[in-house]
Prior knowledge:
Blueprint (H helix, E strand, L loop, with lengths): L4 E4 L2 E5 L5 E5 L10 E3 L4 E3 L6 E2 L5 E3 L8 E7 L2 E5 L1
Antiparallel strand pairs: 1-2, 2-3, 3-8, 4-5, 5-6, 6-7, 8-9
Amino acid sequence: ANGGFVVKNGVIVARTNSGTFLAVAAACTHEGTNVNYSSSENKFVCPNHGAQFSSNGSVTKGPANTNLKQYNTSLSGTSLRIFS
C-alpha cells in the first residue's frame, strides 16, 4: 500500500504516497537498528536515537554519520526487483 514499508534480507522497501518504490539498507549506520519509513515526511528514521535519512539514504540528522546504501528498484507487472 502507498506509505507502507517492509524489511526483508537487510533491505527496507518503502512505497511512497505517490506509489513509487524506495529501497535502502535497513540497518541504521549508527548502531544497526532497523530504520522505519515515515511516509508523511518521505524519509527513513531510526527509532533508537532519532537518526534521519532522506529518501535516497543520505544522512539528514545524526547521530548517524554514514549514509544508508541505496538500491535500485524495478517493477514489472506484480514483481518488484531490488538490485545494486
